[in-house]
Amino acid sequence: KEGEILPPTIQRLMKGYNKYLRPFFDNGPVTVGMSLDIASIDTISEINMDYTATIFLRQRWTDERLVFEGNKSLSLDGRLVELLWVPDTFIVDSKKSFLHDITVENRLIRIFPNGTVLYALRITTTVACNMDLTKYPMDKQTCTLQLESWGYNINDVMFYWTRGNESVSGLDSLQLAQYTVEDHYTSVSEAIYETGRYPKLVFHFELKRSILYFILETYVPSSLLVVLSWVSFWISLSSVPARICIGVTTVLTMTTLMMGARTSLPNANCFIKAIDVYLGICFSFIFGALIEYAVAHFCTLSHSDAHMLMYRHHMHDFDDEMNGIVTTISTHASRAKRRKEPAATPPPAPASTELTVSPSSPSGSEPKPEASPPEPTNWCLTVLATLRKVLRFISCCHVENPHHIDNYSRVTFPLSFVMVNLLYWTYYLYF
After folding, report:
1. Intra-chain end-to-end CA distance of the chain, in Å
2. Which sequence ranges are marked TM in the entry (predicted)?
């Protein structure tokens, strides 16, 4: 029979009950207490900047129309919620939510003798979470779960956490893939819209990313690629194929690693992430090792050409010296011949004796000193020597020994990489 569908107590409570009217308590707002049980946090997406969680939402309020005699509560079928007034609570930043209905709708209704109603739901929801990925993957993200009343303002309904920060449970036992829950707390506020002020409860939880996965997946391989690029410093400069092969292979492998590290992140964003900085540093060192060989090889070719030019210059100077010696010998021979010719003539006057002191003087009247070169020539030589020194200092082609470039690189590249790593990890871990 239709009258036997509901127990007599429920039939009496539902008689004259209007589910479209909220409970009135001393003409004040209805106070609704909230508590949460986090069953699981399934996914946390950096691409979509959201998280998906399954929660048990419990709401408590008092409806004087449901007071009955007795000392035991009444547990009703969840489908009877259609007969009662319930708060119009919604999740503010929810992108997609659904109520579980296997095997039946996961709802719970319990009425206590004093008119208190316990209403529990099992919900899976995807909630937006604004993330700051500047320090990714050494970042901490603070996400929220906000509960508001859709139609009732603060004059009709007031929300509160039943046990303060302890109103939310289940986070301590969660095992997340990349995160650990560091802290969580609750707060009470109001949402202000054009239509009025509405009650709002906010649950905050802080997630810290586990970096071990990224160390094994990205940081260690990229560092090993940098070390591999240094192997070329111990290979001879004449082994062009070997050194080019190492340089190009490490550059291409590093490029592939950089592209793979960005697949799990937003394609277009304004963040310069910590992992991007490190991959950029490693790529710079690998590319620098390739450029180092190009410079060293070029200096080797220039050094060999310089040796040929120096040899030709020395041969030219040697030819000039030989021509000078021959010229000097012929000059001395002519002077000796001139001395013999006046010796056959009678001895000249005493004044002529002074003229023989300088054989190079054709007239014998004004002797010239032989060891004083013209001053303009000395000034030109000084300027040319100075310019040559400046050009040798500026130009990298005038390396004394190109093999020293590899020797210096064996020390400077590792030391520089260690120093950059110290600065990088200190900044992103402690600042």
Report:
1. 73
2. 211-235, 241-265, 277-296, 411-430
Cβ(144)–Cβ(203) below 8 Å: yes
CA dist., res. 253 & res. 26, Å (int)? 73
Kindly list the distances between the CA atom of residue 195 and the CA atoms of 147, 153, 191, in Å, as whole numbers in the listed order.
Answer: 17, 9, 10
pLDDT tens-digit series, residues 72-87: 888 888 888 888 999 9
Is residue 128 predicted with pLDDT exceeding 50?
Answer: yes
User: Which positions ≥6 away from 191 have C-beta within 8 Å?
Assistant: 92, 148, 197, 198, 199, 200
Which residue ranges make up each domain of the chain? 8-209
Nearest to 209 by CA among 154, 134, 281: 134
Alpha carbon of 2 to those of 5, 80, 84: distances in Å?
6, 15, 19
- The owner of tokens 């010229």 is 327
- How far apart CA 403 and CA 346 sit, in angstroms, is 74
Longest Cα–Cα distance in the chain: 175
pLDDT mean across residues, the chain: 82
pLDDT for 386: 81
Q: Tell the CATH topology of 8-209.
A: Acetylcholine Binding Protein; Chain: A, (2.70.170)
Which residues are CB-neighbours of 22 under 8 A, at least 6 positions away? 30, 85, 152, 156, 157
Using DSSP bridges, classify how beta strands 196-209 and 179-193 pair: parallel, antiparallel or unpaired: antiparallel
Query: Which is it for strands 107-111 and 74-76: parallel, antiparallel or unpaired?
Result: antiparallel
Report pLDDT for 341.
Answer: 55
Q: What three-state secondary structure class fits 130?
A: coil
Q: Is 408 helix (H, G, I), strand (E, B) or coil?
A: helix
From the list 320, 34, 271, 284, the residue with the least C-alpha distance to 133 is 271
- 3-state SS class at 78: helix
Say if residues 283 and 255 touch (Cβ distance below 8 Å): yes
